[in-house]
Every structure is written in structure tokens, then in C-alpha cells.
């Protein structure tokens, strides 16, 4: 695959862009990774309450709501690449604050600032990667988002088990600074230039991405991208309710979002995994258990690429939701019925859940 230098460049650009999805994995699992710091005899933040931990875990999701009104419009006005650079700033500011202050209020403010970029990671990274990828690589590179998120989870859990609180945040700050540097070297999305009728710049982006100056190839690529991504007539909000196709699409998207991310409590379990594991097995140090938890998440991402292609997207989603329900039912049943080894079985089910 990498014998083609154009594909290698696409992959490099996608990897750099997905450093933000990696960062999303870091901020989501941060509370779980830092649990042993907060509950040690020398807690960097001093004594912390359960309520404080709850706010520390949930506040990035609250500030992410504000990002809904910003990142999409910003990527259309400024372009994908400038927006990608701006996207790295809230994370960078967050880690600077975490590096220089151990004040509990400052930590919450830092998490709020960092969370503002969460939605932008999902919206802008996936959009950029789809727009730069060639037809043969689009599906493969689009899968990189969930993989990068899982790698971020594994990374912060593993590193936090071996380094101090301050060292951890200097490392995370360095990763974000590296991203801000590398993103300067990737090209703008050719689709953004096509939308602005700047075909010369679109060709320049494609020349870099495909590593070719062949006009036939470039013109063919531009034609394909226009067909895939350019909508000639604008769609207004009220049009969603007037058009049966758009309305059905919205209902399906809302249903999937609610069932998979909200009803299954996936984000909550990821965010507070070490606390959940500790409550199940009643062990003070759960770092190794939590590393295993995130590794199962990573393996699940790898497996889903193959299984979803074999079963089809709809069958895969439905079967996954049914499996979630069974796991939660059994875990809930074990909480009320005294069954031997219920703690170990519940732990296995949590691992299978994240897988």
C-alpha cells in the first residue's frame, strides 16, 4: 500500500489530523487515569470529594455543547486546516494550566476550556480526513478516528501509572505543541477550495496529497470530490422537516446517538472506568486493571472494522446494542442477587462491554 507515495502522504496527513482524536481520548479518560493521584496520601490537589471528581469528569462535556455552535461554522469560513490549528489551542491552554497550577478551581476551569474543543475533534477531524482521502483509502482512513481515540485512552492510563502528576501533564502538553507544529505542514482540504471555486488551490492540495502533477488525474479527482461533497442547493433548518429524506435521516441519527452514546452510558463508563473497576473488585490500586480495560477498548476498535464489514452496518449496530442490554441486565441482576464470584463476573462483563 505504501509503495504509492501519494497514499503515504494521505496517511501522514490523516495521522496528524487524528492527533486531535487522540487528544479527545486523553481528556475523556483523564479523571480515570488521575484517580490514584487524587486518592494518594500526597494528592496534588489536596483532599478531593466525590462531587468534585464528578464535576471534573463531566464539565468538558458541558463546555462541548458550546462548541456545537462554533466549529462547524469556523471550518466553513476559515478552512479545515486553520480550524484544525485553532482546535489544538483549547487543549494546549488546558494543559498549560494543569502544569502550572494545582488549585482545584483552576483544574475545573482548565477542563472546561479543553472540553470546548471536544465536538470540534469529532466534526472537523472526520470531515478533513474524508475530504483528503482517495476513493481506495477513504474507508480505511475514516476508521482512524475511533482507533486514535482508543490509543489516547490507552496512552494516558498506561503513562499515568508510571509517572508523577506533573510529569504526565508536561508530556500531554508536549503532544499538543507537537500537533500545532505538524498541522502547519499538511495541506488544506481540496474540497474547501472547490467550495470556494478556487480550483487552482484545490489542484495544489491534490498535487501534494496524490504526489502527482498529471492534469488528467487531478481533474478526475476534482470531479469526483465535487460529486461526493458539493451540494449545489443549500439546505436550511426547516427544510429538514419538509423533506421526507432529510427528516428520516435526522430521526435515524438522533436514535443512533441516543441509543449508542447516551442510553448505553458509554462515555460515563469510559470517563470513570477506574472508579467502576475499584467498586467491583475493592482493590486500592486498579491501574493495571484499567490499562487492561483500555486495551480491550482498542481491540474492540480493531475488531469492529472487520465485523461491521462482514455483518453490515445496521446488523452490527443492532447486535451491539442488544449485547449492551444483556451485559447491563446481568450486572444489574448480580447487584441484587447474591451469586458467587459476582464481582469477577461483573468485571469480565465490563471488559466485554468496552470491547
Automatic annotation (TrEMBL):
<protein>
    <submittedName>
        <fullName>Facilitated trehalose transporter Tret1-like</fullName>
    </submittedName>
</protein>
<feature type="transmembrane region" description="Helical">
    <location>
        <begin position="141"/>
        <end position="162"/>
    </location>
</feature>
<keyword id="KW-1133">Transmembrane helix</keyword>
<dbReference type="InterPro" id="IPR005828">
    <property type="entry name" value="MFS_sugar_transport-like"/>
</dbReference>
<keyword id="KW-0472">Membrane</keyword>
<feature type="transmembrane region" description="Helical">
    <location>
        <begin position="315"/>
        <end position="337"/>
    </location>
</feature>
<dbReference type="InterPro" id="IPR020846">
    <property type="entry name" value="MFS_dom"/>
</dbReference>
<keyword id="KW-0812">Transmembrane</keyword>
<dbReference type="GO" id="GO:0016020">
    <property type="term" value="C:membrane"/>
</dbReference>
<feature type="transmembrane region" description="Helical">
    <location>
        <begin position="289"/>
        <end position="308"/>
    </location>
</feature>
<feature type="transmembrane region" description="Helical">
    <location>
        <begin position="52"/>
        <end position="72"/>
    </location>
</feature>
<feature type="transmembrane region" description="Helical">
    <location>
        <begin position="251"/>
        <end position="277"/>
    </location>
</feature>
<dbReference type="GO" id="GO:0022857">
    <property type="term" value="F:transmembrane transporter activity"/>
</dbReference>
<dbReference type="InterPro" id="IPR050549">
    <property type="entry name" value="MFS_Trehalose_Transporter"/>
</dbReference>
<feature type="transmembrane region" description="Helical">
    <location>
        <begin position="109"/>
        <end position="129"/>
    </location>
</feature>
<feature type="transmembrane region" description="Helical">
    <location>
        <begin position="12"/>
        <end position="32"/>
    </location>
</feature>
<feature type="transmembrane region" description="Helical">
    <location>
        <begin position="84"/>
        <end position="103"/>
    </location>
</feature>
<dbReference type="Pfam" id="PF00083">
    <property type="entry name" value="Sugar_tr"/>
</dbReference>
<dbReference type="InterPro" id="IPR036259">
    <property type="entry name" value="MFS_trans_sf"/>
</dbReference>
<feature type="domain" description="Major facilitator superfamily (MFS) profile">
    <location>
        <begin position="1"/>
        <end position="355"/>
    </location>
</feature>
<feature type="transmembrane region" description="Helical">
    <location>
        <begin position="168"/>
        <end position="186"/>
    </location>
</feature>
